[in-house]
Design brief:
By secondary structure, the chain is mainly beta. The protein has two helices and 38 strands. The chain is globular, with a radius of gyration of 25 Å.
Length: 555
């Protein structure tokens, strides 16, 4: 079902306030157009509602909302006329009561009570919505706020769909989902292309990357406020979107403080005498199309400010496991292998940039002005002589991350990341079996002067049931509690983990888990969410790229 057909599930509710009161005797502040609350007209975000009113003066407004169990408020800055202000947080299929209070510059107030809004139900189609289960173990320790994640649907290889049907099923569906601490949906957005990395901004806008090489920014009503596309993408021009001279956009992008955008793109090169296997060092070599990563900063009009090409700075013959996967073949680049596979990019306060290269199992920090590499954090084998001085060394009996995701520097200056733990080897060493893999969040103290790092925290504990997240994942420090929210992107069922190998893994279904840990040693779980498979013909698995805790903005 397309997102435009979802409107058959919606019941529009427009209720006008039945009581208007002036809050202070003698005040002339009043509504000249009574407040109304109505269903969001954009079916892409069906749980949202919109507020409209008009006052006789410029006012600030606060909307108090309750469903009898939960209470919250949304504030809006100075305005005289309000048209379609976004309201979110509504629980599906529940009636909500709303009260609106306005205040002018002199402190006079007026209010409107008696508004109601019944939120629509969520879709019952198993291909449109995951099944959510949550568990909270320590309510006093949990970070306040909603959880935002991006459910991505998939079916196991060979599950009643051919390869092309399977690809279309996964890539033609994109979703952002916000839940409360009980796991109840409070907002969601659906689009027609799978969503990779996303970033919820303080103004309530969300920037995300799609599978068809676009960057979109939306508001909480699901309206696209800005968009860009890679001008050289196989899909051609995108309507109502700024073109950027790039082959792709993939995995991650950020809006910078100066208003420019930072994004991951790629370049494709024809390389002679290149590897043909990651398991057999003696396999005949051949000329190969190889995809490498390109970092770009561009202004809102699409003009590139600077670029950094991994082909120019990293050893192209240092390969990792999954280089010969079909990642780029499934994305309309036939006969193209995946060399570096970056999955996140961040500009630091000192102006340098870090890129996480999954298949290199390395985080690279460089100066965008000169292109020079400052340091490399990752497993040290196979790097050329000229980069040896850039490599970190680990202190103590700890292990390197492998195929990791989402490195960030915390408020303490430590390096926090999600370690998938895949393979624990590079070609042509023997990989660790899937059943012995462990995925975790891990935090390191890093000393750039001595080029050493030591582990200070991990989510992994001796008594924890093993979690194997084959792909994707995130780890983020939470602002109020200091906890760490971890997204285990694509998790295998532990009941059949012994049957799974690195070669047959695509034939097994996946779930996803989001877990909030305390920063204690050992870590304690305080909140947990799982997205369970839905449907049966075929069974649909759900995973995520990343997750965030968000607070509603004051507008």
């Amino acid at each position: 079902m397309s997102r435009f057909k979802l409107n058959i599930l919606l019941v529009v509710a427009i209720v006008q306030a039945n009581q208007i009161a002036v809050g202070e005797t003698g005040s002339d502040l009043k509504f000249i157009k009574s407040p109304i609350v109505e269903q969001n007209p954009n079916p892409a975000a069906p749980l949202a509602a919109v507020l409209s009113f008009e006052a006789n003066k410029e006012v600030t407004a606060t909307v108090e909302i309750t469903d009898g169990e939960h209470c919250w408020d949304v504030s809006f800055d100075k305005r005289k006329t309000a048209d379609h202000l976004p309201l979110i947080g509504f629980r599906p299929d529940r009636k909500h009561r709303l009260s609106i209070r306005i205040k002018d510059a002199d402190g006079n107030t007026a209010s409107a009570d008696g508004l109601t809004f019944k939120a629509p139900s969520i879709p019952d189609d198993p291909a449109l919505f995951p099944r959510i289960e949550t568990k909270t173990t320590r309510k006093d320790k949990v970070e306040p706020g909603f959880r935002l994640l991006n459910p991505r649907r998939r079916v196991p290889q060979g599950a009643q769909l051919d390869d092309e049907q399977q690809r279309r099923f996964g890539e033609s569906f994109g979703m952002l989902l916000m839940v409360d601490q009980e796991g109840t949906p409070v907002w969601y957005y659906q689009t027609d292309s799978r969503i990779a990395g996303f970033d919820y901004r303080h103004d309530g806008h969300i920037l995300f990357v799609t599978a068809d090489f676009r960057l979109l920014e939306i508001d909480l009503l699901g309206n696209v406020t800005r968009s860009w596309y890679a001008a050289e993408r196989p899909q051609g021009q995108a309507e109502n979107s700024e073109d950027v001279p790039a082959l792709t956009f993939h995995h991650d992008a950020d809006v910078l403080p100066n208003g420019n955008l930072l994004a991951l793109s790629t370049k494709r090169r024809r390389i002679d005498d290149y590897f043909k296997s990651e398991y057999d060092p003696n396999a005949p070599r051949q000329t190969q199309w190889v995809m490498g990563d390109r970092a770009i900063e561009f202004d809102p009009s699409g003009k590139i400010v600077w670029e950094w090409d991994a082909f120019e700075h990293l050893p192209v013959r240092r390969i990792g496991y999954e280089t010969f996967s079909n990642y780029w073949k499934r994305r309309s680049f036939p006969d193209t292998i995946d060399w570096s596979h970056a999955n996140s990019i961040t500009k630091l306060e000192d102006g340098s940039v870090i890129i996480n290269f999954r298949y290199q199992s390395a985080i690279v920090n460089f100066d965008p002005k000169t292109g020079d590499i400052n340091w490399i954090f990752g497993e040290p084998s196979g790097w050329p002589k000229e980069l040896q001085s850039k490599l970190f060394r680990l202190k103590g009996d700890i292990r390197w991350p492998w195929h990791q995701h989402a490195p960030v520097f915390t408020s303490k200056g430590t390096l926090l990341l999600f370690d998938n733990g895949n393979y624990r080897a590079r070609p042509f060493d023997t990989p660790t079996p899937v059943a012995q893999t462990r995925s975790r969040a891990v935090e390191y103290e890093v000393d750039v002067e001595s080029m050493t790092a030591s582990q200070v925290w991990t989510s992994e504990t001796a008594d924890e049931r093993p979690i194997v997240s084959i792909a994707m994942g995130s780890a983020s420090e939470l602002a109020e509690t200091g906890n760490v929210l971890v997204g285990y992107g694509a998790v295998f069922d532990p009941s059949n983990i012994d049957e799974i190998t690195w070669q047959n893994r695509r034939g097994f279904n996946q779930i996803t888990r989001c877990i909030e840990y305390t920063r204690e040693n050992p870590a304690q779980v305080v909140w947990e969410l799982e997205l369970k498979p839905t449907g049966s013909a075929p069974e649909i698995g759900w995973n995520i790229f990343n997750t965030q805790v968000v607070r509603l903005p004051n507008k």
